[in-house]
Amino acid sequence: MIDNALLVQMLIGALLGLSVYLPLAAGQLSLATPAFYAVGGTLAALLSTRWSALGATPAGTLPLGSFVLELLLGGLLAGLLALLVGRLVLRLQGIYLAIATIALVEIVRVAILNLPFTGGAVGIFAIPQPFSTAAGYLLPALALLTLAGWVCQRLKGIPLGRAMAAIRDDELAARCMGIDTTGAKLTAFVLSAVLAGSTGALAAHFLNTWNARQGSFDASVTTLAFVVLGGSRSWLGPVVGGLLLTALPELLRPLGDGRLVLFGLVILLGPVLAPQGLITPALLQRLGRWGERDQPPASESQP
Amino acid sequence: MIETLLQTLLNGAASGGVYALVALGYTLVFSVLGVINFAQGALFSVGGYLTFLLMGGTIGVNGALPGWGLPSGLPFALALLLAAGGSGLVGLLVERVAFAPLRRRNAEPLLALITSLGAGVVLVNLLQLLMGAEGYAFPPSANALAGLPDVLVIGGARIRTIQLLLLLISAAAVVVLSLWLERSRGGRALRAVAEDATTAQLLGIPSSAMVRLAFFLSGALAGLGGGLIGVSVSLPGPYFGIGYGLKGLAVLVLGGLGSVPGAIAGGLLMGLAEALVPGEASGWRDALAFAILFAVLLLRPSGLLGRRTVDKV
């Protein structure tokens, strides 16, 4: 039931989940991930179909090097946009930030729909393929996910990550302690955008066509659901949430139109039934203890 | 020239009135609970489809019950009123499922955002299951509003009667609601809960009943908007309310979260601004609301008529 194409989609879901997680790790609820995903995808679609120097052949193949270059450029463009927009929107807090990022997603969507060179409602199609089968995309997607996961794991040990955690707990207190809250929030926002942009570039090739619908408010909802269902206390949560929730509608396909109702029910009931998501700190602790069984038990006595 | 301008302004005011309805719906819930009900757009769709069915429309071939419809349609005014009430009831249901469980356990407000989005997804897709994804035009009886002509000529400007009616009905709804909030016992109780739920409870105001009332009214406003837009334009598919829900959000911020006059002024401003976009750039019209929203958030985060808040340590 799970074929290679679905596996790639699940990995893309996990990557987008991480992109939503990064600002959230600094306490910032940003729904802008689909905007950066759309920007990265559109750039890759445009470059590979218009720029002959990339070496796309009439048969629709693309050299691997050009594909990697596009992943980098997609991430770069999205990151630059985030740097520009982030300086402005990150002054906002809470629900205001969420709404401003929804606005960003809508503006990018309408722009891609109306710009003269992005193909309008149909979009850009026949995007050249670096791989001949869906299985080929597994490796780059997995590599990107590993890299992103490694960055998230590293964050725990370096000042930036600790600053983000402090802002998440109490921004005002963090600022009073002399933490550069603006810088930390902006870095998290830009990292999130770079990841979404590269993921978009990968997805554009994988999907073969690209249009404005790729980055819509709906996508904001689903990517946020990845994080909520998986849990936002550890980077593993969004990954698990992204993998599961992307697979769900496909696995439910036999149900026909009713599957989206069920998908909505998951989003609706998930936070009620499991407020911390599937991957909770308690679960991680138990897993960690299980892994370190040989060592003497930790002497912490938390209730 | 002046006629075209008048025409444009009236069209703008008419859609602005609907935006104001949606934004007021958000405002009611936000002022009482401090959260945003993201299912508002779906309730807008629900209102549109309810009005359609109540007026005697039949379900299309892709729906769950093709060809099914009420034996006879209700007149427009009654159908609209009942549809608004029905959407209000669905709003109550949303409160029960998406908000109440979280409130009972004092969960973080972020979660209510998600659950209400989930409720919206469920509602829209249930509509799609029931009615199919196709568009619906209202039965012709909808246009024969009490024998009024389709088009009125006012001072040389040709205005669709339904647009004018839309403006009048939304204006009436807004005025009645504001007066009720300002003057009546129930309205004052609602505002007391919005100010401080605990104190209100201590003073003998049933807070949770007031919360439910806010959700009912909020759903009814969205449903009213959906019915009006459906009659005036048509129903392009179950997702059509989502776009209005998002624009209502923009209006909400434009006017200032929680401010009733702000929601009304913001709605009108947004409708007029959109109407003034020239035809050649109509593709960009949908971005205008959000561009304005962006500008307002950056220049004046508390909105045009909102109160500034100060962080306390």
Give your account of this protein's structure.
The complex is a heterodimer of chains A (303) and B (313). With 303 residues, chain A is an all-alpha fold. Chain A has one domain (4-216). In chain A, 69% of the residues lie in helices and 0% in strands. Chain A contains twelve helices and no strands. Chain A has helices at residues 4-25, 33-50, 64-89, 94-114, 135-155, 159-169, 171-176, 181-207, 217-230, 236-251, 258-273, 281-291. In chain A, helix 1 (4-25) runs antiparallel to helix 10 (236-251), helix 2 (33-50) packs parallel to helix 4 and helix 5 (135-155) packs antiparallel against helix 8 (181-207). With 313 residues, chain B is mostly helical. Chain B has one domain: Orthogonal Bundle (ABC transporter involved in vitamin B12 uptake, BtuC), CATH 1.10.3470. In chain B, 68% of the residues lie in helices and 3% in strands. Chain B contains eleven helices and two strands, in the order H-H-H-H-E-E-H-H-H-H-H-H-H. In chain B, a hairpin with a 2-residue loop joins strand 1 and strand 2 (157-160). The radius of gyration of chain B is 19 Å and the shape is globular. The interface between A and B is large, with 42 and 45 residues.
